[in-house]
């Protein structure tokens, strides 16, 4: 990370270590692989046809369902978001360019990590509270222009979102001085300008498909226990039901590759050997880190596509079918990406998420205590090393288990029985590789 990055102000993403694991590292890896293989064999024999139905789910009580759909709840959420955004903009424009400014914590912790965790719990919340979506709608109303009117037809799929997410992870993980106010002003200004231009040209679909943070929230929101059944009613469901509703579309593979590759690189970049190599390399550090980050993105996409290619060959299917199959199984990487995200960002969210309140109370750096939180001391009960190490290990293993089941469900849906079972073997090899790599990155010395 850059010397002035947000991570210099907070504890490492994972404060646990190999010595803090509740069982030996080798035993953890063996247990994780055994769980994956047993699950693969079990579902291969027992899960012979699609089981995840859109009508599944435990219906919520009518009163709770009405509250979730109510205008007052959505209005309250938008109002709270607007207050936080305006408060942060004051600090961005007029606050001090120092560690006392809350803007880096709001952007890199509350927004980036908090949005991810909130979406996994409650669904695609950014679509509801996105202030730029609201601004776009307000401008159309003022101009008395139909919200359905567009200047150009949108055809790019999720590719702009993938590029936007990749750019933001580069900013968070690599960019120099990424917490300085001039840098953040440029970052926020550029994003607002691109969003308004994109929505002006393509309409509301820009936010649905191209906005990186709406797509980030929507994909992770598929794991939420809250969701709508096919009859439109609210219900409780498994994470697999949400992921199974996602169908392949242009740019989906690239987007999930960025989601998974970014957290993998984040853990890798914390390795002491890597840091030493970067410092001693004749190449510029930023260039070397950037190439490596893009390499992680590419590695995820290539391994997934190779697994699909080999799967089609084993199933005696045409090679061209691999392009469709890779889009079909790409959603199975979302639980894995979510597991990596929890593993890498848990301690950052818990600790810095609390500490941000002590910064937000004084947005202008004048010594004020507008929120009464200046003396807040973050509670470290949830970032004890052994607890964090356990959360990291469990989240990675559970994410991969959910990924195996999600991939199997899609395979038996789009392929015949024989092709589905045989075709998943290469994907299982990829899952094992991801699991071992993820655990090694986190816990190996």
UniProtKB/TrEMBL annotation:
Keyword field: Membrane, Transmembrane, Transmembrane helix
Regions that span the bilayer: 25-47, 76-95, 107-129, 149-171, 183-207, 251-270, 290-312, 333-351, 387-408, 420-444
Superkingdom of origin: Bacteria
Name the record gives this protein: Fenitrothion hydrolase
Organism for this UniProt entry: Intrasporangium oryzae NRRL B-24470
């Amino acid at each position: 990370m850059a010397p002035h990055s947000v991570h210099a102000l907070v504890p490492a993403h994972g404060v646990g270590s190999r010595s803090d694991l509740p069982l030996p590292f080798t035993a953890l890896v063996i247990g994780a692989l055994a769980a994956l293989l047993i699950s693969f064999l079990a579902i291969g024999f027992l899960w012979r046809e699609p089981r995840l139905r859109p009508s599944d789910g435990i219906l919520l009580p009518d009163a709770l369902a009405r509250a979730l759909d109510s205008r007052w709840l959505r209005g309250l959420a938008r109002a709270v978001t607007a207050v936080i955004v305006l408060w942060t903009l004051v600090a961005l424009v007029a606050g001090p360019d120092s560690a006392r400014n809350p803007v880096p914590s709001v952007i890199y912790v509350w927004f980036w990590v908090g949005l991810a965790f909130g979406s996994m719990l409650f669904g695609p919340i950014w679509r509801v509270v996105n202030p730029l979506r609201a601004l776009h709608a307000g401008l159309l109303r003022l101009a008395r222009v139909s919200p359905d009117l567009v200047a150009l037809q949108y055809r790019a799929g999720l590719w702009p979102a993938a590029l936007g997410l990749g750019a933001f992870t580069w900013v968070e993980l690599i960019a120099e001085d990424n917490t300085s106010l001039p840098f953040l002003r440029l970052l926020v200004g550029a994003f607002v300008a691109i969003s308004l231009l994109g929505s002006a040209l393509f309409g509301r679909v820009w936010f649905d498909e191209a906005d990186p943070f709406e797509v980030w929230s929507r994909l992770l929101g598929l794991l939420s226990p809250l969701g709508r059944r096919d009859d439109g009613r609210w219900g409780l469901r498994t994470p697999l039901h949400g992921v199974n509703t996602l169908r392949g579309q242009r740019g989906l593979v690239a987007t999930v590759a960025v989601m998974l590759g970014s957290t993998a690189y984040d853990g890798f970049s914390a390795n002491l050997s890597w840091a030493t190599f970067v410092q001693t390399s004749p190449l510029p550090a930023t260039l070397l880190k950037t190439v490596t980050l893009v390499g992680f993105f590419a590695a995820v996409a290539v391994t997934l596509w190779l697994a699909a290619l080999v799967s089609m060959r084993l199933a005696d299917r045409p090679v061209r079918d691999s392009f469709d199959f890779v889009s079909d199984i790409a959603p199975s990487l979302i639980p894995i990406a979510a597991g990596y995200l929890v593993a890498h960002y848990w301690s950052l969210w818990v600790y810095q998420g609390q500490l941000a309140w002590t910064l937000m109370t004084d947005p202008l750096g004048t010594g004020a205590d507008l929120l009464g939180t200046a003396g807040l001391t973050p509670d470290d009960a949830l970032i004890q090393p052994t607890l964090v190490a356990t959360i990291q290990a469990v989240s990675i293993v559970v994410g991969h288990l959910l990924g195996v089941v999600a991939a199997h469900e899609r395979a038996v849906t789009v392929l015949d029985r024989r092709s589905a079972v045989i075709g998943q073997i290469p994907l299982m090899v990829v899952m094992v590789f991801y699991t071992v790599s993820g655990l090694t990155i986190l816990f190996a010395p």
